[in-house]
User: Fold Putative competence-damage inducible protein from Anaeromassilibacillus senegalensis.
Amino acid sequence: MNAEIISVGTELLLGHTVNTDTTIIARELSALGIDLLFSCTVGDNAERLRAALREALSRSDVVITTGGLGPTGDDLTKETIAEAAGVELVLHEESRQRIETYFKGRYCGENQYKQAMLPKGCTVFPNDAGTAPGCGLETDTGKVVIMLPGPPSEMELMLKRYAVPYLAQREQAVIVSRMVRVFGIGEGAAEEKIRDLTEGANPTAATYAKENEMFVRITAKAATEQEAAALCEPVVREVCVRLGEFVYGVDVESLEEVVVHGLQEKGLHLATAESCTGGLVAKRLTDVPGASEVFEMGAVTYSNDVKSMLLGVPEELFPAYGAVSEPVARAMAEGVRKKAGASLGLGITGLAGPGGGTPEKPVGLVYMALSDGTHTWVRRMDPPGRVKNRTWVRDRAAHYALDMVRRYLAGLPVEGHAV
Amino acid sequence: MNAEIISVGTELLLGHTVNTDTTIIARELSALGIDLLFSCTVGDNAERLRAALREALSRSDVVITTGGLGPTGDDLTKETIAEAAGVELVLHEESRQRIETYFKGRYCGENQYKQAMLPKGCTVFPNDAGTAPGCGLETDTGKVVIMLPGPPSEMELMLKRYAVPYLAQREQAVIVSRMVRVFGIGEGAAEEKIRDLTEGANPTAATYAKENEMFVRITAKAATEQEAAALCEPVVREVCVRLGEFVYGVDVESLEEVVVHGLQEKGLHLATAESCTGGLVAKRLTDVPGASEVFEMGAVTYSNDVKSMLLGVPEELFPAYGAVSEPVARAMAEGVRKKAGASLGLGITGLAGPGGGTPEKPVGLVYMALSDGTHTWVRRMDPPGRVKNRTWVRDRAAHYALDMVRRYLAGLPVEGHAV
Assistant:
């Protein structure tokens, strides 16, 4: 089966909005085993949408549109598709009621109800994050057109809750996806280790690179959810075995989530002292709801004076080793741990650039230390081969620092591989 | 003049990469006054690229491709376009030398030199951030095809340095763009104030929404850079007058950049004490190179104990007013200022959610205070009408807090409007 996507929206062609909808849909189609051969964007223009639709239906089994389902005169997608499919739009009472409820107590223009007019015979997809419902429509030539709203938060929810099951159901199948999150190994190296697993058809396994990390998505299709889950399970396990200690979690959102939940489970508290990352590690920890239970204090100590005053880093370390050094990272971790009365202290000092590098201490060099009161571990992050920017160095250092805590909590060697 | 974009890359159709190239090009075309009617994505497949190209050339004056210029066998864009245009690929000696220099001292496969083969008669665009050059090619029917690399960092640089001037030059024109950055007023309200200015053709003015802020881009086309700049100037000035104190800078990158540079100019130091933003303000300040000159200490004080221990917030404030209150924000700002020996202290306390809200203190309520030792100002940020998530609350609070410092430095009322 193959598919194509038509994104409808003049704002996309003016560059006002990045088209993330297409990426999100592309991933779901890939997981479903449906080939996406083509995607295009047209403005809010019935004639051009009609032309794109005609072409798409001539060559693809499934056509997915995003956008143009709203209340304004610009929103033409349903009208244009219904006309092309030779069906009329009819009022969908349940959708009308949902819109009424949505606006309860606030002004609701008559045009809002235009959104409840849907192609006759379609399968309606409720909009759980907004007002415009979507739908799936089978044409008399056996093709399928799926209409989704444009705003990504509405689109993504509707896609995953209703459109993907609708597509799977047409093949009398249920889809289950699992996510293996990985840090500390490149996408290329990881892919080499699991290449044979990514060649399967059911479940499919695919690697995706994210900034400074990657993930493997395993997706299976079966008659029931249980069967699909059972198909995934051995591949998930095998990916975890092959990627070993680099796997930081399965079906989790982020490294910081794993760290915060790990601290919660063990009843431990963490304190942070950051120089070059400037609060990024604290920010990431507190991105996780509930971080307050395990994270009471973070210090951003940019100057040497503040490192000594706040954390008790011995002043003589600076002339002897420099602020970017193993002894200073160590003293920061130990100092902040004591100051906060926490179980664990994390210290980070390095050169984020662009200025300040020397041949001995180049931009990109970062030391990080983790102390538990008994022992202090230090990791040294060397600059990459090619010069990267300040943001990249800081993001990478924050990742490596959080990964030390993750390793400590998991009982793995804290320093891990040379990084 | 109208244009369309063809993005080439199987990774886009698998959802591995978000297509930001199209958005960036769309903005430049819009600023140039060129209408983008259509954009599409095809995989690394010569046949489908050929079909898309044929269609694009049949209806558009300018066709811009991204991707497929690299060294591998998958990279087919130049070959396919040259064939369609009936020209051959020839070695471009300067590009060959650039590739040689790029790989100096490292292994360089023979296939790298494939990138120096370019359509005969084209205008070559150097790649200042990578290896694959791009080019502009005029077909014998007077259409223009522009080929750009896929990686956004390479594409954007080449587009702005070479492709935009190439397009402008064809109309014997030079383009100048100015950026007015705005915070504290919604895109809708801002647009209403400057609607008449956005209707001009030269210069054009357009509003763009960004997370929690917006910007206005003014672009003029003229025979010389001076003339184009002179056309922009009065519109930039008028936008600044109409949007008044909400304009935080012209041709700057971010609010934090304005704050860091403002502190540098005035020789002032800032210290931060964050509760609900958890280090986000410190992180944003230290995103700016040179922040170390003006920012020595940040504290992330999540628990009441640490607020008292580290910042000297009087313990009796917590039972009397609660941690999320004006007196605590005030004491945090004053306390961190004193502790760090800084000129200015910033304190932030609020409820980021999702849990912890009450009818009196709902999720989204944030107090922030700025102290200069003589006076302390407090802003109260109320939750928006519709519930937003934790990230949104934190980002917005960080914006408002940085905006207080910006206002202080600019001599504006620090508390500004009720927010």
The radius of gyration of chain B is 26 Å. Residues 390-410 of chain B form the longest helix (21 residues). Chain B has a mean pLDDT of 92.
